[in-house]
Amino acid sequence: MPRIKMKNPIIKLTLDNCRRLTGKNLLWEKTGSILDAFVDGIDKKQVIEQWGGYAKQLLEAVGWSAESTIYREFEGGVSLAISAPIDALYAACQLNEAAWDLTCAHFIPDIIMHNDVGGEGVIDVDIMIASIKQSIAQEENPELLHLIELAKKHKVPYLVDDDDVSLGYGKYSKTWLTDNLPEPKSIVWQEHRSLPVAMVTGTNGKSTSVRIMSQIIKAAGSCCGVTSTDFIRVGEDIIDYGDYSGPGGARMLLRHPDTEFAILEVARGGMLRRGLPVDNVDAALITNVAEDHLGQYGINTVEELAKVKAIVAKGLNSGTLVLNADDPYLVELAPSLMVEKCWFSLNENNTVLQQHRANKGATCFPRGDILIYSDSLQNETTLVDVNDIPMTLKGAAKHNIQNALGAIGLAKSLGIEDSAITRALVCFSSDVNDNPGRGNQFVVNDAKVIMDFAHNVHSMDAMVSTTEHMPAERKFLMLSYAGDRSDADIINMTISALKMKADILVIAEISDYLRGRLLGEVSEIIASTAESNGMLAENIIFSSDPVAGSKYIVERLQPNDLALLMVLSQRDEVVELLQTT
Fold this sequence. Notes:
α2 packs antiparallel against α3 (about 125-140). With about 575 residues, the chain is an alpha/beta fold. The longest helix has 19 residues, at about 90-105. It has four domains: about 5-140, no CATH class; about 140-190, no CATH class; about 195-230 and about 270-425, UDP-N-acetylmuramoyl-L-alanine:D-glutamate ligase (3-Layer(aba) Sandwich); about 440-580, Mur ligase, C-terminal domain (Protein-Tyrosine Phosphatase, Chain A, Alpha-Beta Complex), CATH 3.90.190. Strands 14-13-12-15-11-16-17-18-19-20-21 form an eleven-stranded mixed beta sheet, sandwiched between helices. It has a six-stranded mixed beta sheet with strand order 22-23-27-24-25-26, with helices on both faces. It contains 17 helices and 27 strands. It is about 35% helix and about 25% strand.
């Protein structure tokens, strides 16, 4: 496709991102393409009207008259989605970009078009349409569409990607190449079935909640498969390490023959890029919503981020959405979510909980130190004492009490027996085996050490709150952040961490995560923030990496000291240091 160079200095129209939508998403439940664009110097309504008009003309011209468009305005720009068959999503992106090019040309006549071979010229709509038609012809797969229709008719779950299509989940799953599909008559539809599937999202606590659920399901006697930002695991076997919180990880897990129960961590990025990984799940959990990764894909406020997290509600057929009643953004958003809900809170007298119980809704809360689940008939089940859950540090780690409550609500929504929930929670620890990287606890030289990778203010606040309840002779703090965090994010997380009132601050460089910044740039922001908030320069130590920083602290630890290590990279090496010292 030709690309446009803008010359008009008054009106600025800038394409930000165009991508395929393969599942239910923020704008609607259709597959297709979405394009985000920045708009300046002109009313966005005018751009939307023109862009949508061109999109419909192109849809008609290529034979997609049954398809439709939808848009979303955001601060500084607009997104337009075009529905399209699942076997022609790349062509849908091409069509959306073409409609955008025509829109730019309409509002900015003095543009220069750059074609694929470097020449310049005007837009030729006939050539544009012919090119899109050619892309559709190359991509379309009528046999695949027919197979999907049959799967829907037989109520069999299916998964599709560029190369493969599968029917059923787990041991009931079978996969074929998309260009070598089976004869429909050869398929024994009753052999392909679903499995219990749940989704977990939120700003913080996703991975911890997924891992708790894995333990609960194991205690209930089933082989649980999980996806997360760290790995894919089936039972006790790690299938692969990496960020698998998107659709690719879900497909890999649900096609694994040993998966009997699936808990999918679904992150903001994956839902915005592609939509939900699967169409229908049995339950979902939203842990919380806090400021994180704003400014991407047209999501600029926490309120908008809450709507992104709530996409999981679209994946519920008749299941339950478990929500945090202590989160004001979820409380505000909840009335618009027309699904069955279960609320949890650290406070039994939370207004949302009380109203939900009065309306015969399920709730989960602590009464004293006891965690309780109340069903829709207000029958209460006493599950576990907070002091018996290792990850709560005898109640000091409030965020892990919330994680336990959310997991209880999700497990009960999935029909898991009470005894399995209790057994799992009293065994689940904040160590490198059960929950690597999340509040891991060590004892070094009779001093307490906590390792975490708090990546936003909300999670940093949670860790600092935990340390406030842990007395210490001296306190050590190590900080390191990825370079793709904004200056404001780095400053705010540092201010939060300083509430620990550490005696010594170690700043670790992480060269693998510079992400466009200069070496030492992030460290200088941390140091200047610490000094401006009262820390003496002589108590600020710079280290070359997290291992070196951790070693500096470990060598100085004495009995009754406390160290909080924020470790993003070299986590395994730091763990080895802490375990062998």
